[in-house]
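Readers outside the structure-tokenisation community will struggle with the description of the input data as it stands. For illustration, here is how one protein appears when written out as sequence plus structure tokens:
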Amino acid sequence: MTADTAPLSIERVTDEASLRDWRHVHNLVIPPDALTVDEVRERAGRHLLDVAYLGDLPVGCTTLRRPTPDAPSVATVITRILPAHRGHGLGTALYTHALAQAHALVPGPDRRVSPTPDRPRGPSPHPSSVSVSTSATRPRHRNPL
């Protein structure tokens, strides 16, 4: 089975090898924001990091920023796919996987998904980013006439 025909697998960053694979994808997709191994290690302590593989080849990565005490109802999903592997549904699969994890971290019936405003939209070398949040207020009901 070659990388072109291998199924996509998504694995949590748990060791030095996966940490380096996550860094490799991140730094190729976002060269101006290249991270050192130590910076990725620190990030892995704060966020959930996953790597997407076709066979043994890393082709994408995600960052799931967990809710914080300052924003307990918000989780942010960032996905990155290497340019050579875009347009084949891998980004959609990776995004769907990360979004499901974000939904598990932000429970509630009023859960919303919205683009993160500091990320560009459309065709771009930048990653896709969305925030998942729950409403802190109750839905408004119309007054009957």
Q: What stands out?
A: DSSP finds three helices and six strands in the chain. The chain has a mean pLDDT of 80. Residues 13 and 44 are 7 Å apart (CA to CA).
